[in-house]
Amino acid sequence: MPTYNIVNQGADNTGGTAIDSVLDRLVGSNTTINFPPGTYKLNDILVASGTENLTLRAPDGARLVPGRSGNVRWIEARSNGFVLDGFELDMRNVVGPPFIKMDSAAGNWELKRLVTRGKVRSNTDTNVGSNNSSDARTFFRLSAAQGTRGLLQDCYFHEGSATPTQASNTRAILIESSSGAISLNRCWFELWGENTIYAKKPAGKLNIFNCYFRNTQNGMRLGGNTELNNCVSIKNAQHPQQAWSGGSLQKGVNVEATDATNSAAGIDSYNGTLTVADSDFNHRYLDPSCRGAIAAPVPCERIDIRNCRISYNSTKLNEDALYTRNGKMSDGTPANLEYLQLSNVQVRNDYGTVYGIAIDQAPDTWGTVSGTIGGSGMQTNSSYVENRMTTNGSPTAPNTTPPLPSPPPLGQVPLQSASLVRIDNSGNSSATTFDVRAGTYIGPAGDNGATLTTTWASSVSAKRPPNSRRATGTVPAGRVYAFYVTGGVTSATKSGPATLTVDGQPYTSASAASMSSDGVADGNLSD
User: Fold this and answer.
1) CATH number for region 3-393
2) How far apart are CA 326 and CA 328, in angstroms?
3) Per-residue model confidence as pLDDT tens digits over 178-231
4) Fewer Cβ in 10 A, N or C end of the chain?
């Protein structure tokens, strides 16, 4: 497996000369290309079908700058096993940045430890009120082939596409179709003017774990076969306007099962369960742009809401804090809600003319309904909910602590000094229990196909920095769990057949100190 140092191979790390010719010469299957610290100008790279397991990695962080602009490709993969790891994506002096695309033929890709610098402005941002949706642009276009996976992890989109008073046509994430499974883990979103996450269509499983959304257009537009866990959505100030439509709104989760199933195209917005668990929504901005925390205008097949906390106030007419409607799919078919669970749901509604929970479409089957509704606004229009939840009570307030570390300062990438703890129970027939403790932070990771566990801490608070310093649980037989650790592994124990490694090396208590700063990536840059 060749490993190259791109500077030793002739690439300019000052940003003066594009690296395309050097990079194209090095690209190949089962190849790692390491980028020492510096600035690299890249016009574009296409990882074609047949080029398997290519890794572009900056072990100590590096900066990528687009060499061209407009609605054009910057980085695209059409193969299996592509990894982009450890970069600042510098858009500060780019008007109309190019896009990053994981093609529908791509699989087992990982985009991780990336931070975007500067506003991702579109060259159509001035077309305010054009009413032409083709003016919209996308920064990250994601898909995965059937039977494969994709991972977007530790990626920061926190500078957004515009200032709060500007208009923008750039969306952060588009998952228009996907047959494979895609996971977003520890991603931070703010101040996007178009859709923040548009992902209502993919047939494959979509996980959105440990993510943070604040004052950003449309929030999450989702369909069935999706799980949201340990996420936070905040709407407490103005956010950028969507340029082409002139609209401005932020929901937390918006369920839109509008598209008919097309399995060959990787599209299925209706079938499956949308789960929203252990998440917090603080939507309290006295403006019509502040919308419901969990909305289902066009419900998918099943909706499961568990252990969620909502606080809501707005001035938007007829917009409840949590609701289901009698919506129809684009072909006119009623979107039938077969199952709805509201387990330990805490809602405070202080908007007097709307409901904390409005059930306009009751499900065919109810799951558990429990929790508390309170606040000065109306409580619920559903007698079924009213008879099972406490109304006019004192609901638990949202925990608005971001579920991931703060954005790194300029010149650093996310979790730059982190170590990777891997508990590998593959090939074994019995489970393994574990207890791993970190000096500063620990959080689950999906590297190399590891299962992203959602049950690694005792409470929501224990999953949020600075309290997230301990991971415990059980790795089922045949599975692998992984965690990023900063501040060193202070202790790690297991009981069972799994192997426990830190940065690829077997862990022993005597080695803890020496493993405190090795980092996730292989630091060998000598080739």
Assistant:
1) 2.160.20
2) 7
3) 999 999 999 999 999 999 999 999 999 999 999 999 999 999 999 999 999 999
4) N
